[in-house]
């Protein structure tokens, strides 16, 4: 049976961590006025000067907009980290995102990306124990964001009170809930070297998305690689084939990624595919935009999400000056299967979030598996064509 831990004492916003045994302590989450706001930032650890610039803008937004938590869709540290106490934690995370006011002292929910997996990935999971575990060091939890990675994949439920009046009529209930589902896109890949881990990840994800529409008003999925993209990756065909149908069936509101170095929103099958990948470095322009692309920018920045009983608003924020580059709105979805009576029973049926160890597999290059495989295939093709050309030349010379 799943376990629950409350992460807020606010009457307006209450956090519930689904089956995360490590989060048994109370976390101070800022209250919001009948709305839930969080920010997403990816590719944030690749340039300290640019990272600090965006971080200062993020701190101001957190104070003004009363952000409740942060989301990082992977690509956290270049070449990963060497251990749970690597100096990168202090230099590229704590020193950058902390201040005397504790502006970003809130849960920092993350997944791993290709760069993270190339280092000591187990240490990135263990860092969570240092922050939330018994006897956690004071300097790790003072004014810094609280690094949160209970497992390679996991989920959380967030509750907030909606306004009355027309909002109450449209939603059918005043207390609203958000299901945050975090996936590791490499673990989900058939190229991942440990099939039992991949199988477990897919099984838990399918079960989570099966139950989610029955208990949540909003369903947000977070992963490193984008499903669709106008950026450098051009999306991921494997995710399009296997993951997208699950997202559609569950009525997911948004899928947040951070792999490509850009900010973009693509609409497809009533789902918003949002990439937030310029947390430290700016990216280039899109020569050809993907179908359904509504906004694309290579500017440094982050995404600000606001949920209410009316709908979801996503703002793309310029990391240099705090200006809103684009605002994307989508209405609250009608979920006829949503049950308030049996909500607790459904929640207890969600897969329990427990750490699933991954064996040591050696240091991996920063590039993702797909690029490595395609590059190898391309090299084989070129070698074959070159050999064929030489053979043809010899054949002609012998005639």
UniProtKB/TrEMBL annotation:
Gene Ontology MF, one = acid phosphatase activity
- Per the UniProt record, which EC number(s) apply here? 3.1.3.2
What UniProt keywords apply to this chain's record, in alphabetical order?
Hydrolase, Membrane, Signal, Transmembrane, Transmembrane helix
> Membrane-spanning regions, if any?
369-394
Entry superkingdom: Eukaryota
Kindly give the SUPFAM superfamilies that the UniProt entry links to this protein.
Metallo-dependent phosphatases
What is this enzyme's catalytic activity, as reactions? a phosphate monoester + H2O = an alcohol + phosphate
InterPro entries for this protein: Acid_PPase, Metallo-depent_PP-like, Metallophosphoesterase_PAP
Q: Does the keyword Transmembrane apply?
A: yes
Q: Which residues form the signal peptide?
A: 1-34
| PANTHER family associated with the record | TARTRATE-RESISTANT ACID PHOSPHATASE TYPE 5 (PTHR10161:SF14)
Protein name as catalogued = acid phosphatase
The uppermost taxa in this organism's lineage are: Eukaryota, Sar, Alveolata, Apicomplexa, Conoidasida
């Amino acid at each position: 049976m799943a376990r629950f831990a409350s992460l807020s004492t606010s009457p307006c916003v209450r956090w519930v961590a689904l089956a995360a045994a490590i989060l048994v302590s109370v976390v101070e989450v800022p209250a919001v006025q009948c709305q839930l706001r969080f920010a997403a930032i990816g590719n944030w650890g690749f340039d300290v000067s640019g990272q600090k610039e965006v971080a200062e803008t993020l701190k101001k937004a957190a104070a003004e907009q009363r952000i409740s938590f942060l989301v990082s869709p992977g690509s956290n540290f270049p070449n990963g980290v060497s251990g749970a106490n690597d100096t990168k934690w202090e230099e590229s995370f704590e020193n950058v995102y902390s201040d005397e006011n504790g502006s970003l002292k809130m849960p920092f929910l993350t997944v791993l990306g290709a760069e993270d997996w190339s280092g000591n990935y187990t240490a990135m999971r263990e860092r969570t124990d240092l922050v939330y575990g018994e006897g956690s060091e004071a300097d790790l939890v003072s004014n810094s964001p609280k690094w949160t990675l209970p497992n390679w994949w996991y989920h959380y439920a967030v509750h907030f009170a909606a306004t009355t009046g027309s909002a109450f009529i449209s939603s059918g209930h005043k207390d609203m809930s958000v299901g945050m589902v975090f996936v590791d896109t490499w673990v989900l890949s058939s190229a991942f070297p440990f099939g039992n881990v991949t199988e477990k990840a897919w099984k838990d994800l399918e079960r989570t998305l099966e139950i989610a529409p029955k208990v949540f008003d909003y369903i947000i999925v977070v992963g490193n690689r984008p499903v669709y993209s106008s950026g450098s990756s051009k999306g991921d065909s494997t995710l399009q084939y296997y993951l997208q149908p699950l997202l559609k069936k569950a009525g997911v509101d948004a899928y947040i990624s951070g792999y490509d170095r850009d900010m973009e929103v693509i609409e497809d099958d009533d789902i918003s595919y949002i990439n937030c990948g310029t947390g430290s470095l700016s990216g280039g322009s899109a020569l050809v935009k993907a179908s359904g692309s509504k906004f694309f920018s290579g500017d440094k920045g982050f995404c600000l999400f606001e949920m209410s009983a009316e709908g979801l608003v996503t703002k793309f924020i310029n990391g240099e000056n705090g200006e809103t580059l684009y605002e994307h709105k989508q209405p609250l979805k009608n979920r006829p299967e949503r049950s308030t009576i049996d909500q607790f029973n459904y929640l207890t049926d969600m897969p329990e979030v427990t750490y699933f160890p991954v064996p040591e597999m050696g240091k991996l290059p920063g590039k993702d598996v797909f690029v490595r495989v395609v590059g190898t295939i391309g090299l084989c093709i070129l070698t074959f064509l070159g050999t064929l050309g030489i053979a043809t030349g010899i054949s002609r010379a012998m005639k």
